[in-house]
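Researcher: We plan to redesign the surface later, but first we want a full-length starting point. Tokens attached.
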């Protein structure tokens, strides 16, 4: 088997061409090396599908020429990502046994996960502008406020 095939079977083949910038982020006690447009699964984050989240715990930022390592975090660096899905991971079987004691316990566990797509790697304190929501036109609230006051005066 050729070396490239061996790495492909091991899941180590990098299909991204000409990676410009990468970051090492920390989420849920684990570290992830990410680049723009990567899709990663992290432990559950409190965000709805389609929402944009900022991951501020950036341990390292770099490209193919230079790297910046934080101590412990890189100042002003952040990673912007979009929540694609909230899901549960595959089931893990927890099996406990004490030999010669007729003691066996079998439990299952499914971890909650969040699937993220990396949108941008921000450095130098730049903040990505949040998507502006269109404000709903205000209905004439002033007359509605006066009505309860008029009722209290009548009493």
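Model: Full-length starting sequence:
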């Amino acid at each position: 088997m050729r070396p490239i095939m061996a790495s492909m079977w091991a899941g180590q083949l990098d299909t991204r061409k000409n990676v410009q910038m990468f970051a090492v982020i920390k989420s849920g006690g684990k570290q992830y090396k990410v680049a723009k447009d990567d899709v990663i699964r992290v432990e559950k984050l409190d965000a709805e599908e389609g929402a944009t989240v900022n991951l501020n715990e950036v341990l390292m930022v770099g490209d193919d020429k230079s790297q910046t390592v934080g101590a412990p975090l890189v100042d002003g660096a952040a990673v912007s990502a979009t929540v694609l899905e909230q899901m549960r991971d595959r089931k893990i079987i927890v099996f406990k046994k004490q030999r010669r004691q007729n003691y066996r316990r079998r439990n299952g566990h499914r971890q909650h996960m969040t699937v993220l797509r990396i949108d941008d790697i921000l450095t130098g304190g730049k903040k990505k502008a949040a998507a502006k929501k269109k404000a709903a036109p205000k209905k004439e609230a002033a007359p509605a406020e006066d009505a309860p006051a008029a009722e209290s005066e009548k009493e």
